[in-house]
Amino acid sequence: MQFVFDRGLEHEKKYLASLVAAGRSVAEIGTAFDVEGRRRAEAETIEAMRRGFDVVYQGTFFDGAWGGQADFLLRVETPSLFGDWSYEIADTKLARKLKVAALLQMATYAERLTVLQGVAPEFVHVVTGDGESRPWRLIDVAAYARRARARLETFVDAPPATGPSPIGYCEQCRWAERCNGELWQSDDLGLVAGMRGDHRDLLRAAGIPTLEALATASLEQLKSSGIGADARTRLQQQAAEQLKERTTGSRRGRCCRR
């Protein structure tokens, strides 16, 4: 992760150097993460845009809930509240292709930028790892970004109960120890060796939420899950074997990492 971070910062600095070499005037905004610091940084960003700098580096946006730092704000000759110019957003990304996450990120910045300058930017730009600046029309992503933010806000206001769901990358995750503990505590179906995620979901929907419940389930319960005969027989036999090992003191059964 540190390697990727360092590479990303190197890419960002290289693009900044290219703008300076091209004779662009640059205003750099200090990064802050506390509420008052973000407000001050946004005020500095507004002042830099009002003064008409060609580039605002690490421009900060904060509306009291959503905040972040755009890598670059690039001046364009479209009138705004600031004068005969306005700004568009550019972010540097190591990937060589546009990705949805980058567009959503910049569309969120653009929402606030539109309020501050009184006009929506026509484009957002991703400077990909190959050094190419790839423009994307804001209008093509803005509505979806607003919907995604609304969904997240709904989730934050009333988060549903959640729990770990084993996948192939679990052992690489820093939360693995905590998730494994929760899986064992709840006797989760993910502990059954060879359990696929879709089978886990089907069994839970059929009222079979644990390893022990699977080991002792009736044929009718298993059939109601919709899982094929061979797969459900194999999974139940595996669960029964692991339950037997558990009751005799052996704990060979582990969460399956697919």
Automatic annotation (TrEMBL):
InterPro entries: RecB_nuclease_TM0106_put. NCBIfam families: TM0106 family RecB-like putative nuclease. This is TM0106 family RecB-like putative nuclease. It comes from Blastococcus brunescens.
